[in-house]
TrEMBL record:
It is found in: Membrane. InterPro entries: Na/Glc_symporter_sf, Na/solute_symporter, Sodium:Solute_Symporter. This is Solute:Na+ symporter, SSS family protein. It is a multi-pass membrane protein. PROSITE patterns: NA_SOLUT_SYMP_3. Belongs to the sodium:solute symporter (SSF) (TC 2.A.21) family. GO terms for molecular function: transmembrane transporter activity. It comes from Streptomyces violaceusniger. The chain crosses the membrane at residues 6-24, 45-67, 73-96, 117-139, 151-173, 185-205, 225-243, 264-284, 309-335, 356-377, 383-405, 412-433, 439-457. Gene3D superfamilies: Sodium/glucose cotransporter. GO terms for cellular component: plasma membrane. Keywords: Membrane, Transmembrane, Transmembrane helix, Transport. Pfam families: SSF.
Length: 491
């Protein structure tokens, strides 16, 4: 690392804080703070959506999987891209029309307010652990850059994200994510990818050096790919961090086309990461851990200045996911959990009363909690697996069922969340956190509970379904009582 590299990184970090301040000046309402005023156009929407889904796991972990398995290591990030494509093409337009702030508020709108608290708790736990795993990744990057102690690195990186997120909410995060998307594209796709391939001698030399399995599309194993689809593709369909970005779209066309562009970008990013990892295997065949491949090839193979930019790209990847998860966590904690515990019903917590200050306080509180947990937690993979297993096993069926099956009921949704979540927890305790069985049987149990209890209980009230159908269609005319609730109202 030279003075030029350090300068690039410090200027980048200072720029993030400056954008946070600028975003604060654009924030004057709850809608501005939580969903960027619901007015992002296609360019900003697609860039920020790509930024949030491609985090440290997709960058550092994606290169690590390429190092370990070759080109088939792209499958983890490919399934993320496929999930985003499915969300954008089939569901994003309807989601954007609902004009809500959280996934739990969507469930309240669809089922009549019977499952919001428990679904909010599950979603809060998921977003909290997602923010934690992203924050832990700062330790690896700052250790390479500055040689900092793990705790100092986590606190430094986390404090920067908490600062700009607290200042301007989603506007600050949107502005910083757009910069991070550009830096990530230049650093990883346009610089590191071709340089790594050239350093490894080109694709011909790589094929000659490595076993044939490194260039097999299914070398990682079919069961692993299937598990990735269940966890990551389905996770993209229902995560609060992803939905909150959908809510920022100016209209349903932006949500659909911008999301499709972001999903396509993810596929290219997946292949790039796997190729970089494969090249690193040729250059450094005896690394102690696959996840060291990214930092090693950046440190040893890149020229002055470029090294700083690519490390800034790695910071971009981590910061975009971390900030998105943080605001999602705070939004759920404030609007789905704290408001209910205070006895504020969804019909009395008026949307006309903007609570920018309250949401800002919750981001700060959640940010401090995330940093504290990150300091004491070591196993990132296990934490992320627990988060996704709980999310998909507990909430996939009630959410997709609510969007696709009109016979689904609130009792069925509640049973699905409880049975699926408990099944996942029990099997993780029995088979192990990283086993495949928890998500397989958790989803099956959740589906059976949702269908069986829905069919056994009285159908959802016709008036509730009527409001739901009109909101899905984007019709403005709704009963006055519904327009006063943040669960059923937008900005």
């Amino acid at each position: 690392m030279t003075a030029v590299d350090y300068t690039v990184i410090v200027v980048y970090l200072a720029g993030m804080l400056a954008l946070g301040w600028w975003g604060m000046r654009r924030t004057s309402s709850t809608s501005d703070f939580l969903v960027a005023g619901r007015r992002l156009g296609p360019l900003m929407y697609s860039g920020t959506m790509a930024a949030i889904v491609l985090g440290g796991a997709s960058t550092i972990g994606g290169v690590g999987l390429g190092y370990q398995y070759g080109l088939s290591g792209a499958w983890m990030v490919i399934t993320i891209g496929l999930g985003l494509l499915a969300l954008s093409v089939f569901f994003s337009a309807r989601i954007a029309r609902l004009k809500v702030y959280t996934v739990s508020q969507m469930l309240d709108l669809r089922y009549g307010g019977s499952s919001g608290l428990i679904s909010g708790i599950v979603m809060w736990a998921y977003t909290l652990m997602l923010a934690v795993t992203s924050t832990i990744a700062y330790a690896t990057i700052f250790d390479v850059i500055f040689g900092l102690d793990r705790v100092v690195a986590i606190v430094l990186g986390g404090a920067i994200v908490v600062c700009y997120s607290t200042l301007g909410g989603m506007w600050s995060i949107t502005l910083t994510d757009m910069v991070q998307f550009v830096v990530k594209t230049v650093g990883v796709l346009l610089l590191l990818l071709p340089i790594a391939v050239v350093k490894a001698g080109g694709f011909g030399a790589m094929k000659a050096e490595l076993p044939h399995g490194y260039f097999s599309p299914m070398g990682i194993g079919g069961q692993t790919v299937f598990t990735y689809v269940l966890i990551y593709s389905f996770g993209m369909l229902i995560g609060q961090d992803i939905w909150q970005r959908v809510f920022t779209a100016r209209d349903d066309r932006v949500a659909r086309l911008g999301g499709t562009a972001a999903g396509t970008y993810c596929l290219a990013y997946a292949v790039a990461g796997a190729i970089i990892g494969t090249a690193a295997r040729v250059l450094y065949p005896k690394l102690s851990a696959p996840d060291d491949a990214f930092a090693t090839i950046v440190k040893d193979a890149l020229p002055v200045g470029v090294k700083g930019l690519v490390l800034a790209a790695a910071l971009s990847a981590v910061m975009s996911t971390s900030s998105g998860a943080l605001i999602a966590c705070a939004t759920v904690a404030n609007n789905d959990i704290w408001a209910r515990l205070r006895g504020r019903s969804l019909r009395t917590a008026g949307a006309s009363h903007d609570e920018v200050g309250g949401n800002r306080v919750f981001i700060l509180i959640m940010g401090v909690a995330v940093i504290a947990i990150s300091v004491v937690l070591n196993d990132v993979v296990e934490a992320l697996t627990v988060a996704y297993n709980m999310l998909v096993g507990g909430l996939l069926m009630p959410i997709l069922g609510g969007l696709l099956w009109k016979r689904g009921t609130g009792a069925g949704a509640l049973a699905s969340v409880g049975v699926g979540g408990l099944t996942v927890i029990a099997l993780m305790g029995w088979k192990g956190i990283l086993a495949n069985e928890p998500i397989y049987f958790g989803l099956l149990a959740s589906l059976v509970a949702y269908v069986a209890v829905s069919l056994a209980t009285k159908p959802t009230d016709a008036a509730i379904l009527d409001v739901w159908r009109r909101r899905l269609a984007g019709e403005p005319a709704v009963p006055a009582s519904e327009t006063t609730s943040p669960a059923t109202a937008g900005a």
